[in-house]
Give the backbone structure.
Amino acid sequence: MEQTIQKQIQVDGSWVAVDVYGEEDGPAIILVPGVMADAAGWAEVARQLSGWKTVAVVNRRGRQPSGPLGDGYDIQTEVDDAAAVLREFSDVRTLFGWSYGGLIALHLANEVPVPHLIAYEPITAPFGAGALPALERAHGDGDLDRTVEVALGEVSGLPAAVVESLRADSAVWAGLTAVSSPIFSETAAINSAPQSAELGRWAERIDLIVGERNRGQAPYGTSFEDVASRTPRGVVHELSGQGHLAHLEAPGHLADLIDRLSN
């Protein structure tokens, strides 16, 4: 399906833009991206989903064309924003979150009923905690190149050679820096989020997805296991052949799994 409209939703101290595909307000799935991602990065997945009449992809605050993070930003800010997005649609059937977005979705489902929650490799503390001093310095200096370098190398654990290959592609690097300004604040929010004994308490159904390449592997696979251990009603599914960036590397494969989980 193709994008229909873009909604702008006013939230406390800022605003969030939501790209809507298909019907403007039919039975809906809401997609919440994570760190170093925006709605544009999830467009191909959104176009290929067929299990809902409406697909809404959130541009979380801190990335264009949404507003700034604002004062006092933490995970509750994101939970409140996601709740505001859900209220904009009359028939939300599924809430999907990727990475940090998955953690946001699970915390939201501790506060409000959610019919169906899907989280792809949700992360939790102490994810990236060791990189916080370096991220804080880069943030204070306004050095987006250094922010991306730290996020890829010290948080995601990519080898230096891979980071340099990404830097060598000017278009790819520009895309990464364009969504990097919130990284320090978001990583701090992940590591200061409440450690609930159970996540997703008000979700009627929970499906958790881990990429085959990351299962049991740090940092994403091990953080996923931490989240899964606190989501006792979650059913774990493995996406074959994929890692953390399935939405970019195999959007159709990911969309197929999400569609199957809607049945």
